[in-house]
Amino acid sequence: MEDFTALPDLASRAFGGGVVYANDEFFAAADHLVLPSEPGHAPKTFDHKGQVYDGWETRRRRSPGHDFAIVRLGAPGVIRGVDIDTAFFTGNYPPHASIEAAVLSGYPGPAELAEAAWVEILRVSELKGDSSNLFPITDARRFTHVRLNIYPDGGVARLRVHGEVVPDPKLLPKVFDVAAAEFGGRVVDCSNMFYGHPQRMLMPGLAQNMGDGWETSRRRDTANDWVLVQLAAPAKLRFADLDTSHFKGNAPGWAGLTGITAEGDQVELLPKTALRPDTPHRFSLLKGPQVTHARLDVFPDGGMARLRLHGRADRDQLWARMRQCLEP
To answer: Ranges for the Allantoicase domain (predicted)?
Structure first.
């Protein structure tokens, strides 16, 4: 079984995910749940409500019921697993939790969220304190929102909702970045990721620093490094952005792009081309057939901040994927 934690975090603020409602956040705001950063902790750091936590923490419940927070997924899709991370919550973590999910169109408010058809995707399960609590999810439907229920109260540092992005085709332009993680682009193989995972290249926005990209170790042979990207849908690619921002003494000297068709044929899209350090490059690609994957070769090694592949996607394939995950 594939490690679901290698899949994108659909709830992450990096995709635009957010906490849209929480019934209680007395000690710490629920917004912390979707932060892409790892939770931190500063012991004996107090404000007017007590110890400061990098997570969501509710007050001690003195009445029946339980606490909950509703998260809008930044990238709707099929959820393959969740991580209810209670890092640094020791005597104040919830002993149990469950998760429900729903499909809602547009931008629902509290009333619509309350009336939504919520589906339980994780039954009430035991949690451990100060731990990453991993649970696989078997429901293969596409969801837009999740509701984290904690029993009866307590603190959770992060909620990671790992899965496969399934965008709504009617909200996509005719030409878009088919490699983008927010639309379902995904790294499926690479030669080396010593300093940084290549999936970072497909994330939204500009890279913040050298650690927010893909970087390989230094090669001492005659080969070169490469990464293989599965596109959001089969597409005819037209432009590529190869961004070496922040990589100054360690940018690749050259790069090339190859498309791979559904039949396995290889098509040259960008011949071996010189790159400059710390520079966003845009290249017009050679016209070719529809491809399902693209391989980026860097020569001989180095770092890349972002990779964008703009093209015209196969709309029938996008709609087929959408329909595939609408029913149980």
So the answer is: 16-165, 184-313
Instruction: List the CATH code of the domain at 171-315.
Output: 2.60.120.260
The fold for domain 4-165 equals Jelly Rolls (2.60.120)
User: Which residues are 165's β-sheet partners?
Assistant: 77
CA 97/CA 183 separation, integer angstroms: 30
Distance CA 230, CA 262 (A): 11
Q: Report the alpha-carbon distance of residue 92 to residue 85 in Å, rounded.
A: 13
**What is the average pLDDT score of the chain?**
96
* The pLDDT value given to residue 47: 86
How far is CA 121 from its chain centroid? 19
**Sign (positive/negative) of CA torsion 70, 74, 75, 76?**
positive
Closest to 255 measured CA to CA, from 196, 304, 308: 304
Residue 269: name the closest of 291, 299, 301 by CA.
291
CA atoms within 13 A on the CB side of 221: 4
CA distance 147 to 113: 10
What tokens does 142 get? 């596409």
Answer yes or no: same fold for 4-165 and 171-315: yes
Sequence ranges of the domains in the chain: 4-165, 171-315
Confidence category of residue 1, pLDDT binned at 50, 70, 90: very low
Cβ-proximal residues to 259 (8 Å cutoff; 6+ apart), any chain: 237, 266, 267, 268, 269, 288, 289, 291, 293, 294, 295
Q: Could you tell me which of 131, 159, 158 has the C-alpha nearest to residue 145?
A: 159
CA-closest candidate to residue 34, choices 52, 53, 54, 19: 19
Total-model pTM? 0.93
Q: Kindly tell me the burial class for residue 131, based on how many C-beta atoms sit within 10 Å of its own C-beta (0-12, 13-18, 19 or more).
A: middle
